[in-house]
Amino acid sequence: MKLSDQKKLHILAAAEQLFYEQGVDATSMDDIAKLAKVSKRTVYNHFDTKEQLFHAILFKMKDELMSTEAVVFDLSKPLHAQLQAIAEQEVQLLTSENFLRIAKIAFMQMLKDPELASQLGSNKVGCMIFIETFLKDAVDANALAIDDIEFAAKQFLFQLKSFIFYPHLYGFEKPTPEQQKHIIEQTITMFLARYENK
Q1: What local confidence, expressed as pLDDT, does residue 166 receive?
Q2: Rounded to whole angstroms, what are the CA distances from 9 to 12, 69, 154?
Q3: For residue 47, how many other CB atoms are within 10 A of its CB?
Q4: pLDDT digit string (tens) for 113-168?
Q5: Torsion, Cα of 188, 190, 195, 198 (10° steps)
Q6: Which of 73, 139, 176, 177 has its CA 20 to 30 A from that of 89?
Q7: What is the per-residue DSSP string for 55-102?
Q8: Rg of the chain's alpha carbons, rounded to an integer?
């Protein structure tokens, strides 16, 4: 890796840490340069503005989230087990330290920038990337009976977010691993009670 690329990664890492600890508005380019151990000029060589740097961090996060391994519907396997694999994968993402750090940074900025909220809301990340395809394939195989695939996908994943992700993000009481298992099981049970084709 070129020295220039290494410095860029150091700048991104420093900015992410400071944005998380202090917020974007309270962080200066001088602060970022100091923590990254580069000159302020080097920071500006890579990023013209702090806003550009902030968006670079979000794009970096999106690239990492796009690497999610898709669960493909398999008629020969129990539907419950397949939904469990999806839910466990989503929960692992939602509770990961890196995702929570980026989510906190983004959330603080979204309160000030409605356009950013709209942009982020339109991007599919984690299991949302593939779950609609999974559900459609399950419907085509007569394993599920769903009229609105998009709504059902959100219904499944948003329940996990409500009970697991947001308590972590806001610093509320965090579910224990055992409680997370219970939430996953109840989410699947409710989903199948509503949509399984019996």
Answers
A1: 86
A2: 5, 25, 34
A3: 20
A4: 667 656 665 567 778 889 999 999 999 999 999 999 999 999 999 999 999 988 88
A5: 90
A6: 139
A7: HHHHHHHHHHHTTPPPPPP-TTS-HHHHHHHHHHHHHHHHT-HHHHHH
A8: 20
The CA distance from 173 to 188, in Å, is 23
Provide the whole-model pTM.
0.77
Cβ–Cβ < 8 Å for 103, 161: no
What distance in Å separates the CA atoms of residue 120 and residue 72, rounded to the nearest whole number?
25
Secondary structure class of 196 (helix, strand, coil) = strand
- Using alpha carbons only, give the angle 112, 172, 176 rounded to the nearest 5 degrees: 135
Contact status, residue 94 vs residue 157, Cβ threshold 8 Å = no
Tokens 């195989």 locate to 141
Q: How far apart are CA 11 and CA 161, in angstroms?
A: 31
